[in-house]
Amino acid sequence: MHIVHTLPALAEALTHYRHPAVVPTMGNLHDGHLALVRQAKPLGDVTVATIFVNRLQFGPQDDFDTYPRTLAADCAQLEAAGCDLVFAPTEQEFYPEPQTFRVTPPEALTDVLEGAFRPGFFAGVCTVVLKLLSCTRARTAVFGKKDYQQLMVIRHMVRQFNLPVDIVGGDTCRASDGLALSSRNGYLNESERAKAGELHAQLQGIAHAVRAGHTDFAALEAQAMQALRTKGWQPDYVAVRRQSDLQLPQTADALVVLAAARLGSTRLIDNLEF
Ligand code: PAF
Q: How many domains does the chain have?
């Protein structure tokens, strides 16, 4: 596996390939990321992972400074998963001058759910993803469905800008109690970790109730929020939405239930399609 840190070295390493399949990450990798790499492998002629903690998508109170940087361990795992090339630029390399051109995603997609709680997050994600897709010359890019709204916003961006890349969603990997794998799970202490499967359990409860014929989504969401509070969580939202654009569902839409909640100081997100 080749590891490069600069744009010229990346261009050089990609010279002989026509169809890079790219998995963008911020590092601190877990089995969920590795599953995305394995999914990407048959989709291109070279499998590329990017590792870059993108300052633009962190708010002033977020964990940019403390976000774990674990490059050596990440590269060992990527190599074992069959990755061919890692692009891990420094900030100076990737943002050599202030990134004053930004991608502004439409409010209809980003003023709800995560966007409502993390102002500027999706503009930061879209800006870095556009740059990463461009410099890796990605023809396929794989993103985890755990960040459901992120995946949807990126799909819309790629479509509107006619970028020559297929966006592929990867299923969420879960621990045995249902907790979605996430780099931020490492922030949970032992007692928080013991409770953390509850978020997924609440989503399953809602999916089950809707499948059984319940249609009062607002009541189901409120019950789940209350159940989480009772169990020591501070939920930001639990929301049943339609899959295509995360707007309020009409009858017969394919649905997804999404949630974000804090356990102590760790904010977790999850979702379930149904
Ligand atoms: O999902 C992530 O890890 C990040 O948001 C991404 C897509 C790598 C952009 O920094």
A: 2
pTM beyond 0.90: the answer is yes
Distance 270 CA to ligand 1 centre (A): 15
Residue 251 has pLDDT above 80, yes or no: no
**CATH number of the domain enclosing 206:** 3.30.1300.10
Ligand 1 atom index nearest CA of 52: 10
Q: Measured in angstroms, how far is the CA atom of residue 236 from the centroid of ligand 1?
A: 21
As given in the structure block, the two tokens for residue 50 are 């990017």
C-beta separation of 263 from 188 below 8 A: yes
- Under 8 Å CB-to-CB from 163, ≥6 apart: which residues? 130, 133, 157
Q: Which residues are catalytic?
A: 33
Q: Which of 51, 94, 129, 133 to mutate to test the pocket of ligand 1 (most atoms within 8 A of CB)?
A: 129
Nearest-angstrom CA–CA distance, 161 and 157: 6
Measured distance CA(259)–CA(147) in Å, rounded: 11
